[in-house]
Amino acid sequence: MSNSFGQRYRFTIFGQSHAPAIGVTIEGLPSGFAPDIEALAAFLARRAPGQGKYTTARREADMPEFVSGLVDGHTCGAPVTAIIRNGDARPGDYENLRRVPRPGHADFTAAVKYGPSRDVAGGGQFSGRLTAPLCVAGGLALQLLGQAGMSVSARIVSIGGQTDPAAMEKALAGAKQAGDSLGGVIECVCQGVFPGLGEPMFGGMENRIAQAVFAIPAVKGVEFGAGFAAASMKGSENNDPFYFDELGVIRTRTNHHGGILGGITSGMPIVFRAAFKPTPSIGIEQDSVDLISRENVKLTVAGRHDPCIVLRAVPCVEAAAAAALYDALLESRCTQWI
Amino acid sequence: MSNSFGQRYRFTIFGQSHAPAIGVTIEGLPSGFAPDIEALAAFLARRAPGQGKYTTARREADMPEFVSGLVDGHTCGAPVTAIIRNGDARPGDYENLRRVPRPGHADFTAAVKYGPSRDVAGGGQFSGRLTAPLCVAGGLALQLLGQAGMSVSARIVSIGGQTDPAAMEKALAGAKQAGDSLGGVIECVCQGVFPGLGEPMFGGMENRIAQAVFAIPAVKGVEFGAGFAAASMKGSENNDPFYFDELGVIRTRTNHHGGILGGITSGMPIVFRAAFKPTPSIGIEQDSVDLISRENVKLTVAGRHDPCIVLRAVPCVEAAAAAALYDALLESRCTQWI
Amino acid sequence: MSNSFGQRYRFTIFGQSHAPAIGVTIEGLPSGFAPDIEALAAFLARRAPGQGKYTTARREADMPEFVSGLVDGHTCGAPVTAIIRNGDARPGDYENLRRVPRPGHADFTAAVKYGPSRDVAGGGQFSGRLTAPLCVAGGLALQLLGQAGMSVSARIVSIGGQTDPAAMEKALAGAKQAGDSLGGVIECVCQGVFPGLGEPMFGGMENRIAQAVFAIPAVKGVEFGAGFAAASMKGSENNDPFYFDELGVIRTRTNHHGGILGGITSGMPIVFRAAFKPTPSIGIEQDSVDLISRENVKLTVAGRHDPCIVLRAVPCVEAAAAAALYDALLESRCTQWI
Amino acid sequence: MSNSFGQRYRFTIFGQSHAPAIGVTIEGLPSGFAPDIEALAAFLARRAPGQGKYTTARREADMPEFVSGLVDGHTCGAPVTAIIRNGDARPGDYENLRRVPRPGHADFTAAVKYGPSRDVAGGGQFSGRLTAPLCVAGGLALQLLGQAGMSVSARIVSIGGQTDPAAMEKALAGAKQAGDSLGGVIECVCQGVFPGLGEPMFGGMENRIAQAVFAIPAVKGVEFGAGFAAASMKGSENNDPFYFDELGVIRTRTNHHGGILGGITSGMPIVFRAAFKPTPSIGIEQDSVDLISRENVKLTVAGRHDPCIVLRAVPCVEAAAAAALYDALLESRCTQWI
Question: Which domains does chain D have, with CATH numbers?
Fold first, then answer.
């Protein structure tokens, strides 16, 4: 089902932007694991709003309450469910969105899919707020990967096409001033990855990571290693030569393959990039339609919006990658040779 | 499991390059469907080798034998299994690959994952030959989508970074002469798509298509609509304005969203691109390792190879997209509002 | 995963007997459905304790709080999550169970499976209390089945081997007095079932209902139609003759097949029976082992216990059947001929 | 999907009674496993027809051809596909069954589910012949369980209500003479089972074994340990006392729980029984309906039939149990504590 991810580390995300709560139920956590709650809080804080001048002012206390699965701070083998209460009151000012879908948003497709009962408040189940429970599931996976010596770390490589920090800052300021928004690219690197994770064909690490990362709102592209640039390279340039390093470990001189060959990890770092489109919610008047009167109308979106969601999406990309990677790790303990 | 795809249109691909057969078992075909076998053969012929001077000379008669699920040319409700016999004898000249993995190939990761019993002949289960059963499953899905008024059509947009046909041809000739290889980019467009297909979050059409497309060997990136270019656009540029067309259908003026918003189809054409790395098998000497003697060695790959797999991959991309789309179509008949 | 059930109506149950909460997340509910909360409460009340003199005195206010998926009383297309707070304080008097597993209980297998971090309080995740969220998921399915003209109704057919109500009552009184417990058999009948639900082989209605019903603690057997009695019949006795009834509907004169042939519903009522073993928790001294000191010991279980869980299990059986049936109903809307 | 079973040892069965072939694709076999083909043949021979005077005379050479997944007699990590050609020509004498469904058979429900294109020849996909590929998948699982010290062994405990071999024989002779058929009960015992296999709730060993066993045609009931008899016992009788045996292993004095507590194996033998209804195909005239003329008619079934399928079903029950058990074994290697 669409809100569930994974085979062995399997979780289901629930909630809408203005439901009483959002949350996640996780199956597959080993019994006896003691999550580092402070580390999890710090991880969640990286995606919380109000981090800087270019993120929404909406106030959220995103600390999850663990309502099942933990006893005295340890997992007990039962599914772990964490809920995050939605503190803000449900506003009545979303009714206009019921009539006029925002360009670039899921408002229109939600209307087609779910009809008049859909939840329009704050984007409903399509809200970026749902990445908070993703970060809970991914944040716990990160801790378990860490115990196995693996790390996952993402960073912004461009915003609005700018790769220099000062130029990014300037572009953001310009977009904010204009009531406009910017997209960007986030790169994620997984270090210490065991070779042999993932499976051929549909179960490859690329397939799994892509399935997870495309669940983050606004992602429109995912590429691994050299990615789209590899399409312009020759085989003699793109192929990564193998060699034994000083410890006798087989490595590659370059990493155009991004740590994955045939869907299976090579032991080199997994490297991928996700392209985020600019936030659809902008303060500039746009063309849209009225779903009730069935006529073309102008739309101006008011309210609190991030001019650039990329700033807050970094831990979400890490969470998605960590979930996919830990799922594959659990799986490999069954099926890997040796 | 890794060789299976889909929820409602679910198929499992089996076989290795030099096993007695490769094939696919498909569950979810409606009862009473009469596949157009000639159309399927024509579709498969587009990916078969020997299509031009830049594809491998290996001779394959890729027509599937339907061993179950069809009675008098119609599906009967039972799973449909098609097998394709591997006519070529299994060569003994792959033994070197058991020792020395080819850079850029799955040889190394297969060794890690499956140990000494792995099938090294012709790439074993990682062979591009396994895209033939993918094209059987996808080709049948295409026919059923066609009955519903949908089409899926892919084309090459670049090879070796060249977008002009003459320049592509020249680049291919140069690569062949040099014993080198080239990658490329394939764009796929799905027309006539019903709005409302796909699900939020992990079940989005982007997630599903990406999961299918990354199963094609050599794919290293997938982007939808404006894709990575969207990351450099402003919201006011990237947002696609809605309007009612002359028939009263809601459409968008531009299609930067590639027909998918919030994971769900908007009714605009689905547009995506897949980046293919250059074929790893090249005739140029490369650095590798000997897995037995555990020393660095030089490798020169002999044998029949495509200097550019992109030429044959076009129907594979269509097949992957069709499988994902038809799966979502079957699913929507259950869960869609109305 | 083990706490999840279903393909199209898919839910995941979470919680332990003394966790902060138990609950369920449901995917697959149609958008726009308005659950009858009072009817659901009445349904849940049938499994709640304190119903009569033979059920535990533990006080539970089992009304679920819907924290996601409902807007103004209607489903919105997002997953529905309901949580039930565990009001009773977590007692410290379960520590003995950490050392000495109760015969007939999951205490021992929980220790093997989950180790020292397992939740022993009140049976942890193995508690019969987890049937409350099952009844939430099943109770909503019942309402949707009702809209389609189907009903599910279970009743007790025997307790302690007695089929006469007066004899059951007497047996219960005797068991309670002796500190002992009794099992029983529950029969469930589904009326108004569409023909054509279910699938062949592993997806048969028998397989699905059995998978759901065996999730209810203490169930040790499931039989359909004539069940085990059919094994003693001749084909000429057991076969159910077909005929056209006065409305031109094909029916069978008898219903030894219990409404299911080849895994698929025939349109006759689905009839099945579930055997419940006697509640393992009894007041009589028993032989057990001390897992710490590793010696044979005597165990006397104190505390609140049902002498017969069968009295409260009737709606649980209905819930399990309804969940399996509604799941098959949603599925058939995709794949059934016509 | 309905023809697929398992999570980690996952297989899909395909084919119909008179399709060109039947077969199975298995994912999850470890790489490097060398199946004992002779042992598998001997196992399959136990379910083949023509074993005695009470089984059908239809001649089948049921030896599977392994078309993928094996290299030089060893699994290579790719899915294993085995096909069994259907040697007998497809008869034209099944056309009457297209009009008049046999009482007790899936003929009627197949017509409802799959419409006029359904395969009626020999029962199509509902044929007991499909248990041959089940025995391939289960037979390989049995060998792998054997390597882990586990065994699975089934036997007939009653036929036509008779438990004495001489009485069974007499009942069979009487049924054959009368053109009638008999059912029976098969008991299956799994020895050497590790404690800790299976999961709580829907993933319990009872749920999994039941899901597999109900896939065998004619099974109408499954019970574990004391099963339905437990419903008439007191807790003090049914509870199995724990003790340390002479080797310090925790065991139970009795095994009313059938080796499973809370869905998880206790280390005691798994014991279950399956009830088989009498074969529906009998030589005696029966009442049925004509689906075309829509009138009540008489039906006399000609052709080759087993008067008692139970004789051939013993290895099928073993195969179903072995598949479920091996699947749980692979799973436990991921998730079990320690």
Answer: 4-337 (3.60.150.10)
